[in-house]
Amino acid sequence: MGENRHLQVGLSDEKVLEMYKVMLLARRIDERMWLLNRSGKIPFVVSCQGQEAAQVGAAFALNREKDYVLPYYRDLGVVLAFGMTAKDLMLSSFAKAEDPNSGGRQMPGHFGQKKNRIVTGSSPVTTQVPHAVGIALAAKMEGKDIVSFVTFGEGSSNQGDFHEGANFAGVHKLPVILMCENNQYAISVPIEKQLACKKVSDRAIGYGMPGVTVDGNDPIEVYKVVKEAAERGRRGDGPSLIETVSYRLTPHSSDDDDSMYRSPDEVAEAKKIDSIITFGAYLKATGVLDDQLEKQINDEIMDVVNEATDYAENAPYANEETLSKYVYADK
Amino acid sequence: MAVISYIDAVIMAIREEMERDSRVFVLGEDVGKKGGVFKATTGLYEQFGEQRVIDTPLAESAIAGVGIGAAMYGMRPIAEMQFADFIMPAINQIISEAAKIRYRSNNDWQCPIVIRAPYGGGVHGALYHSQSVEAIFANQPGLKIVMPSTPYDVKGLLKAAIRDEDPVLFFEHKRAYRLIKEEVPTDDYVLPIGKADVKRYGEDVTVITYGLCVHFALQAAEKLASDGISVYILDLRTIYPLDQEAIIEAACKTGKVLLITEDNKEGSIISEVSAIIAEKCLFDLDAPIMRLAGPDVPAMPYSPPLEKSFMVNPEKVEKAIRDLAAY
Q1: ipTM, 2 decimals?
Q2: Which of A8, A190, A235, B56 has the highest Cβ tally under 10 A?
Q3: Does the beta carbon of B327 lie under 8 angstroms from any beta carbon of chain A?
């Protein structure tokens, strides 16, 4: 038996197994989207692959009944943990009317679902950071015990909205968790050409909040620091900045060719520590998972993905008459 | 009823709405203890406290963006941009976010925020404290833009903006703040956003304008009346989306149309008004559509004669109406 780290941070066997299932579901949905894209069925994919551990570890550390999440475009793991379904995501990929994110109006990866407090997002990066601060401010004004959780990439940590939002949250001591999913590339530009400081978390000091960098391939470690940040926020001690370091295993999107700017060897090295594999191995070493259960989980997930794909592919598009709907409340 | 100034109407509207609805709050630079650099939030900090009248860090994108987040949560934020000229860092938040939140989420989310900003020249404010910025936002469906001319309209329209379910840009003419006074009811009323208002009825020439220029037109019309020239004045009040019906009616009424804006002429609000009239009123026109506007230079200079030359004034309006009447 390997060292059990999940019980030490308050995660039961059932919980870590549930985390693993969500990570695996995110990966399998993502893989299916690439197949659909390469076979000409959907126009675009932007991936979560390599970041599932950070996303799911963080989401499980939040209160999924009341906290707000403001995900960025790779956060398949976050939105699945917050209640979006494989079917919802496939409907978005196929741009169908029933897509709860946008009714097929937005590209995939632009999440939003009010009933699950997944806040609608856009494509210009990092605009969601001030929104997270505003939600935390509003919740505080109403005396609600709510944390807002916002994610972005390391390239995005250069945007003014990151700095303006972080400072506002710091000044007003708001319960915001800013989590940078550092996957080491902003499309083609590596981190050393993005940051003048060593780590994204170094930026926290300017905004009066703690900054911590953790292994983004380790969902238990991410869970632990996000849990602490959430408790800190709920105590009224203000925001936190967390940087999860992982590696983007796919090109930036289905329209990118990453062989232009990084070597296949580098990607192959990163795949050796892919969290889907390492976390699976950890669960086996701690007796939570065995080969038989692993196969059963995989089969179940493939059924879910297949069913979601078929449903979405056959679902109708929005009628043309809806083009002018919902510009304003009265139309 | 009491005679109050344009800026007092701003304060009255905000105060009444904050008293009526606990979700309404104010955020911006210097809006708290100081009561705003123009004093448009005077007394609110004392009445409602620092939780609801929030002095923010000096960062416009955050003022807009934090307000947008609070609005999506369900609050009714009123964000103040200290000068309309300083709204530029917040444009991404206003155009990419606020304007599109309802549409992009297929009506799942909404963004009922009001963003107030003082605009306009004639106050020795030079290039960066004098601009009219409305045209930048006036082709962004999802936004509403209100630019009132009188204290009565300010109160009714600002209250309507705060209660609106969608983002509203509320531009207040800073020269009008203390210059324009009139009787305003102390009780609750709202005016409809999207509706223009006839400020004077007449037969010979139609003037369509908004903001401070409404007063220049009224002064010119008064003078021209003694010379037998009768002027119809339509105040747009909401400049986006435009009240097409009122514009068409006003243009057809006299067949001679003068459009006025303080903004640079090209691509301005009156350019769109002109296009509406050209499309809908061709056979009712008795003269070419005439536009009176600021010159196409980047913004108005500090130098008094140059500023004066940039600005529209009653004399320029009077001359334009005379030219049109004689056509």
Answers
A1: 0.97
A2: B56
A3: no
